[in-house]
Design a protein that fits this description.
Layout lengths: L2 H30 L3 E3 L3 E4 L2 E4 L9 E6 L6 H18 L3 E6 L3 H11 L5 E3 L5 H4 L3 E2 L7 E2 L2 E7 L5 E8 L8 H7 L20
Parallel strand pairs: 4-5, 5-6
Antiparallel strand pairs: 1-10, 2-3, 4-9, 7-8, 9-10
Length: 201
């Protein structure tokens, strides 16, 4: 092994160690945030209305994905990934996906994608805005935004949000970007599509 390669591999190992340390610090900082009280919102499913408190099932914790809806190919890619993981996630905490689309639109789209995780609609509610995943038109990155909220239901039935994060290209919630980062040219301007053909890669 050449000296230059060895030096680069040592630098990569050091950078990886720094990154791992920063991630652990981030996790610890998030856990220090005081819980944020949340009211028991009424959402929709194809079976009718459902309360946020009902989404917990038998768990005290709920991982809720904020999906922008059927018009976003990035959100669709994240959801495709969660579809392969949601049973693992559900074994530790309740897991659902919420979008602004109506229940029937969600159901039809989920059927086409082969999604099996539970989906709920925030249509006609202020839930998405109140959780900070929809901003006014004059704001930077206006409109609906993707991300995740994590809630806990206390013994007295009160709901609090204990963590939140935004999604975006290169985030920690979609491995596609990290695998592309290993390629010589990285993502090279790649964007996800709803469907792929042989020609599109």
């Amino acid at each position: 092994m050449s000296e230059s390669r060895l030096a680069l591999e040592r630098e990569i190992a050091a950078a990886q160690k720094e990154l791992d340390g920063a991630r652990r610090r981030l996790v610890n900082l998030r856990r220090k945030l005081p819980p944020e009280p949340v009211r028991d919102y009424e959402l929709k499913s194809t079976d009718g209305s459902v309360r946020l408190s009902e989404l917990f099932g038998d768990s005290e914790d709920l991982i809720l994905i904020h999906n922008m809806g059927t018009g976003c190919s990035n959100c669709t890619m994240w959801a495709d990934g969660f579809n392969g993981e949601w049973e693992h996630l559900q074994s530790r905490a309740a897991f659902v996906v919420v979008s602004p689309d109506g229940p029937e639109v969600q159901q039809a789209f989920a059927r086409r994608r082969g999604w099996e995780f539970p989906m709920y609609s925030a249509e006609g509610t202020t839930f998405i805005e109140d959780m900070g995943f929809r901003w006014e038109e004059e704001e930077f990155l206006s409109g609906y935004q993707p991300g995740v909220s994590v809630f806990r239901k206390n013994a007295d039935g009160r709901i609090v949000r204990v963590a939140k994060d935004s999604f975006g290209p290169g985030d920690l919630y979609c491995g596609v970007w990290h695998l592309f980062d290993l390629l010589p040219d990285g993502p090279a301007g790649w964007d996800p599509l709803f469907e792929y053909t042989t020609e599109s890669g």
